[in-house]
Specification:
The chain is built from 21 helices and 28 strands. The chain is of the alpha/beta class and about 650 residues long. It has three domains: about 5-270, ANL, N-terminal domain (Rossmann fold), CATH 3.40.50.12780; about 280-415, no CATH class; about 480-635, GMP Synthetase, Chain A, domain 3 (2-Layer Sandwich). The strands form seven sheets. A seven-stranded mixed β-sheet has the order 7-6-5-3-4-8-9, with helices on both faces. The protein starts with 11 loop residues before the first helix and ends in a 6-residue tail after the last strand.
Length: about 650
Amino acid sequence: MEDREHLLQYTIPQILRWRVRQSGSRIALREKDYGIWCPFTWKEYYENVRKIGLGLERIGFEKGMKVALIGDNIPEMLFTAIGAMSLGGIAAGIYQTSLPDEIADILNYLEVGFVFCDDQEQVDKLVEVRDRVPNVSRVIFEDPRGMRGYTEDKWFLDIRELYRLGEEVAEEKADHFEAMVDAGKPDDACFLCLTSGTTGLPKGAMMTHRNYINMGVQITKVDKLEETDEYLSFLPMAWIGEQMNSFGVAMATGITLNFPESVETSMEDLREIGPHFMFGAPRIYETIRSQIWLKIDDSYWLNRKFYYYFMKVGEKAAKYRMSGKAMPLGLRLKSLLGSQLVFRPLINQIGFLRLRRAYTGGAALGPDLFTFYQAMGVNLKQIYGQTEITGIAYMHRDGDIKPDTVGKPLPETECRIGDGGEILSRSPSVCSGYYKLPDKTDELLEGGWLHSGDAGFIDDDGHLVVIDRVSDVMHTRDGHMFSPMFLENKLKFSPYIKEAVIFGDQQEYVAALINIDPIIVGKWAEDRGISFTTFMDLSLKSQVAELIRKQIDEFNQTVEQSHFRIRRFAVLYKLLDMDDGELTKTGKIRRKFVREKYDEMYRALYDETISEKEVEAHFQYQDGQTTTVKTRIPFFTMDWQGE
């Protein structure tokens, strides 16, 4: 394998230039536009970065300034980010789903002077809060559609004009850009990455070039990647998981990044590309699992019989593959037959046929769902980390995979368990702190260790087991400690349950609010002739409540200790949504917020005299309008009695 340690002495723009010298004609990026995959070589990649960088300088961008990126993933987003880095500037990602007020707060906090948007939708958000972001001097846009009314306003700049300005500067000062790239240092801050914000407003982690490159180098010591490998860039660029791959892994290995035509077509584009490795949050794998179940449910009865039989075979075979032990000949033959007859065609349909490894992180993935993919032959591996350590600190190794752990530390990463069971880490990939938040930085890096805020322990095999957020670990009234996240993930393995929120801290029993999966439950209802109009209507059907009761009853039977079984539950009338503040941008439950927002329902869960309660349902639409509907929510008590 290529020795990549020397890359740690370079900045991201310097490695990009080195890649041009090594293999300038190889494909670095590929973008799907109007149904056609358009390639960029490493040489073209660097040329576009150079033009953007020099163009930014011409319009007033200087060393230390910030440019924010808002939009779907496109090559121009990387050109702009690395172009700014080449000048000694700093890029920052903002989720494209962010609302105007949220964007304004982030731009002011990060002191952003320039903003790159991919289209009119994102530009219009800035127009709405223009008077609140006085530091923003220019808004650069890539897609000109719908922008005709803005062309006379000097606040807006078409990226094509930025390219032209960059070419002018290059002709005037031939070696100027190279000198600026040479001046960069690996430990310079290059990106402000927003944390997930589970407990409040996000913080800007100051990431350095070395943070990203070290992550790319260390990952490939565990799992080898080749220059010929393909990756689909469909995760938000604001998330550390995507930055880790685009800036770290891609630069360190020379793999090809592929950009889907849109977020909506990303799964179809994934099938066309057939990536060799994939990284995604648990919600991605939960969605794909739901699609698989729908395909199986729609197939012939014989196909369903084969599927369920070979899934049992696959689960047995997966235990051997994950542990690295030799598989008995009979089981190996059955597993091979199941792969050829059932699973290979199935994973080919979802674009996983060339996939050597799939990774999940950003939130916990339940062991049941983990085993589901392994049983099909998808080499899914858990990683664990956080924004502040460039995404990954721990990961599974091939042949040493345990579904209830997150693996062992990456090379050059140290781990220990601190007071109160908190997971502490140390690595060259740890960020330099939070932007403009010295007190929070001191807390984060106290004693020279990164404080994760998560509780966990190291098992006898050296694997890290993550329990939950330290602040989220609960205790029943009798003093029994439990992880709500673990119970929620176990519940969500049911195809009918999309989300679950577990309660029980300082209470006599565990209770839950359930979000049904609208696609799976909707089809289930249609197959039984149960008519419904809206998600709320479907959620409140008595037949759906009975369906969920059966799922919870099955869940309770798998929970050995009775005090962790669900005693009461209700089906929530709306899907938990990040736009409503109930979920973070990476899909984690903002537990405290949900508890306070649905306080009436929470209180009813702990009053067994209540079987039904009228509540006010609040809805916010995409245009910002809100409405309130009164509805009656039933509450259910399970049959089992505590021991």
